[in-house]
Amino acid sequence: VVGADGGLTAVDVGDGSLAFRMLKLKQMLVAGKITDDVYKFTLRKMLRVKAFGCGCGAELEKGETKSEGWMCNVCEKDMAAGSVVYSCVDCNWDGCHECLDQAKCEQAAEAVRDMRDARGMEGARG
Fold first, then answer.
1. Is the Cβ–Cβ distance between 58 and 88 less than 8 Å?
2. SS3 of 31, please?
3. How many CA atoms lie within 13 A of 81 on its CB side?
4. Buried b (16+ CB within 10 A) or exposed e, 70-90
5. Scanning 35, 52, 86, 93, which has its CA 20 to 30 A from the CA of 119?
């Protein structure tokens, strides 16, 4: 999918676990609904959002972009001056607020699924 700015845009594969969404994305590729480039771009974004943060594991600093020219290392979109940004100064990593929110939602949903799975296992033992 090509965005309004001419760049690739990730496709929406709906809700579910990361594995389920990855499978759904692969099915879209096989069915010819998306191109290989869109598949790779969307998959890369899914995995980056899952692991929101820099590679060195340092604490991210919340700040604001002071000028144009900043890019989110998760969604690869440009950030306007004045945007909220989470940065690692050590490895020059920047993430936008939208990607952080998405990562938090995915982590919360995964925690709920894990609790449900644990309760189901307890019920099976009893």
1. yes
2. coil
3. 3
4. bebbbbebebeeebebbbbee
5. 52
Nearest CA to 23 among 51, 50, 42? 42
86 token code pair: 């989470």
28 and 34 Cβ atoms separated by less than 8 Å:
yes
Q: Could you tell me which of 86, 89, 41, 44 has the C-alpha nearest to residue 63?
A: 86
pLDDT tens digits for range 84-114: 999 988 888 899 989 888 888 777 777 777 6
Encoding tokens for residue 3? Answer: 């965005």
pLDDT one-digit tens code per residue, 3-22: 444 567 778 887 776 678 88
Q: Cα 48–59–18 angle (5° rounding)?
A: 25
